[in-house]
């Protein structure tokens, strides 16, 4: 049972569009995999990627950008990778290292009050992603992205 | 044995006094210096010698910093100069020297002329011996610390794997059974969500256990442990490790396997952190009666003659230390723009191999 199959939504087209619309250098989408793959979280779609390294990475809850967003259910903003992470710790954020991102934001994607995916958008220049740009991005995304909700809905 | 007498004896003693490397001081009853040989003069500070020779102050305390007793490294309690009856045939004393600061000496102090109360203090520089001893002790200590660390990791790793993960797995099975019972859609949905969380949690715990110390290293040997570790590196960091193993024996002694595994682990992690690339080449083989390991990347490299450590600098130190523990040789070659290669060569003596076969 994957969310993607159910919806028949073209996520690749959607993130290509988002990248174009907001002039991001890189957009990627991580999704929780079906039971056969033990429900791991992997980067499934990318737009503007330099290489295919991101496809090899299986994300662990609480580790890396997607892992932290996934575990906390909170969005994450890194305005300046060089200042906020530092070279010594960078290897713990493989997607940032592989794609040479310098500023980025990541959002949790919700299905029934559970984080089921992570949407990441970034620039290869410092400070291009800032609170204003990030908020604007979030606002304009609207309420849903395919089968996902952008904002958490409290369980009833 | 020949007992010398007369002129011959005087001549020999004179030579010993003048040319010997042992420093000799003659003291009177009050601990004043009445004479010293050239070796002794070389030790003392110039102004101290002047004061002693001119008779302003002939006490030995000007240069002595104390001797080592059961309580302290440098002690002045029950000073050997004032306790002629104390046991001072062999002890360690610290002196303030001319060129090298405070230096330990092996000393012996005894009376040679009962009537006039003349005693002799003979000193031998101990610096070298102490350094050797210190290194020896440090190596023993390091070996012990590393072993303790590995043992503790092994224990926690086993505990996680055998106990925590097993419990979790049985809960997960229970949960899966629940899905096939007569429950409402709401409950079913919730159960599925919980199943997902628990499945991921189980994986996390297994990873944690392997990260601490892979059970496969103890149960299956180096090659198997490496293969699963590199797979994990690929999944976790997107790092591609090209691994080739050409090993004659499947198993080696536990100590060697641990060293090779840890050195390789560190080297691969270094490549990931600093090479700037996402590919590493690891080769493991036997040659010249030794186990050889190379970890090579074609990344940015660095200038080996400039210390511009990007990390803590402890990684390289640790790898070298571990290699020494099994008598192995560790070499690192790199230059800017030409990648980095780490080589480890561990000698396999015959008995070590047999021991490995048994385990």
Automatic annotation (TrEMBL), chain A:
SUPFAM superfamilies: GAF domain-like
Domain GAF: start-end pairs: 16-131
Top-level taxon: Bacteria
InterPro entries from the UniProt entry: GAF (IPR003018), GAF-like_dom_sf (IPR029016)
Alphabetical list of Pfam families matching this protein: GAF_2
Protein name as annotated: Nitrogen regulatory protein A
Native organism: Paenibacillus lactis
TrEMBL record, chain B:
Residues modified to Phosphohistidine: 161
Gene Ontology MF annotations: 4 iron, 4 sulfur cluster binding; ATP binding; iron ion binding; phosphorelay sensor kinase activity; protein dimerization activity
Gene Ontology cellular component list: cytoplasm; membrane
The UniProt record lists the keyword Repeat: no
Source species taxonomy: Bacteria, Bacillati, Bacillota, Bacilli, Bacillales
UniProt cofactor note: Binds 1 [4Fe-4S] cluster.
EC number(s) stated in the UniProt entry for this protein: 2.7.13.3
Source taxon at top rank: Bacteria
Protein name: Sensor histidine kinase
Keywords: 4Fe-4S, ATP-binding, Cytoplasm, Iron, Iron-sulfur, Kinase, Metal-binding, Nucleotide-binding, Phosphoprotein, Transferase, Two-component regulatory system
Broadest EC class assigned to this enzyme: transferase
Location(s) in or outside the cell: Cytoplasm
Cofactor: [4Fe-4S] cluster
Cited PANTHER family: NITRATE/NITRITE SENSOR PROTEIN NARX-RELATED, NITRATE_NITRITE SENSOR PROTEIN NARQ
Listed InterPro entries: HATPase_C_sf, HATPase_dom, His_kinase_dom, PAS-like_dom_sf, Sensor_HK_TwoCompSys, Sig_transdc_His_kin-like_C, Sig_transdc_His_kin_sub3_dim/P, Sig_transdc_His_kinase_NreB
Binding locations of [4Fe-4S] cluster: 61, 64, 76, 79
Post-translational modification summary for this protein: Autophosphorylated.
Pfam families: HATPase_c, HisKA_3
Known function: Member of the two-component regulatory system NreB/NreC involved in the control of dissimilatory nitrate/nitrite reduction in response to oxygen. NreB functions as a direct oxygen sensor histidine kinase which is autophosphorylated, in the absence of oxygen, probably at the conserved histidine residue, and transfers its phosphate group probably to a conserved aspartate residue of NreC. NreB/NreC activates the expression of the nitrate (narGHJI) and nitrite (nir) reductase operons, as well as the putative nitrate transporter gene narT.
Catalytic activity, reaction form: ATP + protein L-histidine = ADP + protein N-phospho-L-histidine
Stretches assigned to the Histidine kinase domain: 163-350
């Amino acid at each position: 049972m994957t969310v993607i199959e159910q919806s028949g939504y073209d996520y690749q087209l959607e993130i290509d569009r988002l990248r174009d619309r907001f002039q991001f250098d890189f957009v990627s989408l991580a999704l929780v995999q079906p039971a056969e793959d033990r429900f791991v979280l992997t980067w499934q779609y990318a737009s503007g990627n330099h290489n295919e390294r991101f496809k090899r990475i299986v994300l662990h809850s609480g580790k890396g950008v997607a892992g932290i967003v996934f575990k906390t259910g909170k969005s994450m903003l890194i305005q300046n990778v060089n200042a906020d992470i530092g070279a010594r710790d960078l290897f713990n954020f493989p997607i940032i290292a592989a794609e040479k991102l310098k500023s980025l934001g990541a959002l949790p994607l919700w299905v029934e009050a559970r984080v089921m995916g992570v949407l990441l958008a970034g620039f290869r220049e410092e400070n291009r992603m800032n609170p204003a740009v990030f908020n604007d991005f979030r606002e304009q995304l609207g309420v849903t992205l395919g089968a996902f909700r952008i904002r958490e809905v409290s369980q009833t | 044995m020949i007992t010398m007498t007369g002129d011959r004896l005087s001549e020999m003693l004179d030579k010993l006094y003048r040319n010997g490397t042992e420093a000799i001081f003659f003291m009177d009853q009050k601990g004043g210096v009445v004479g010293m040989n050239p070796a002794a003069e070389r030790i003392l500070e110039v102004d101290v010698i002047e004061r002693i020779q001119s008779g302003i102050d002939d006490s030995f305390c000007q240069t002595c910093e104390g001797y080592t007793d059961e309580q302290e490294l440098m002690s002045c309690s029950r000073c050997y100069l004032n306790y002629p009856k104390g046991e001072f045939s062999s002890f360690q004393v610290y002196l303030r020297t001319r060129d090298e600061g405070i230096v330990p000496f092996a000393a012996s102090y005894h009376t040679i002329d009962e009537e006039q109360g003349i005693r002799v203090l003979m000193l031998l520089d101990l610096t070298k011996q102490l350094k050797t001893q210190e290194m020896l002790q440090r190596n023993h200590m390091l070996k012990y610390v590393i072993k303790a660390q590995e043992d503790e990791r092994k224990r926690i790793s086993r505990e996680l794997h055998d106990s925590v993960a097993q419990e979790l797995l049985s809960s997960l099975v229970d949960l899966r059974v629940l899905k096939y019972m007569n429950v409402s859609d709401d409950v079913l949905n919730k159960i599925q969500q919980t199943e997902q969380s628990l499945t991921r949690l189980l994986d996390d715990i297994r990873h944690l256990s392997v990260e601490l110390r892979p059970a496969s290293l103890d149960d299956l040997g180096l090659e198997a442990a490496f293969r699963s570790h590199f797979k994990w590196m690929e999944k976790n960091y997107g790092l591609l490790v090209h691994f080739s193993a050409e090993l004659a024996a499947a198993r080696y002694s536990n100590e060697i396997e641990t060293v090779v595994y840890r050195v390789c682990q560190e080297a691969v992690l270094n490549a990931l952190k600093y090479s700037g690339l996402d590919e590493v080449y690891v080769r493991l083989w036997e040659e010249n009666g030794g186990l050889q390991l190379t970890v090579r990347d074609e990344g940015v490299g660095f200038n080996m003659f400039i210390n511009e450590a990007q990390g803590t600098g402890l990684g390289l130190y640790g790898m070298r230390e571990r290699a020494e523990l099994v008598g192995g040789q560790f070499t690192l070659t790199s230059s800017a723009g030409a990648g980095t290669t780490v080589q480890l060569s561990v000698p396999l003596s015959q008995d070590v191999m047999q021991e490995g076969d048994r385990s």
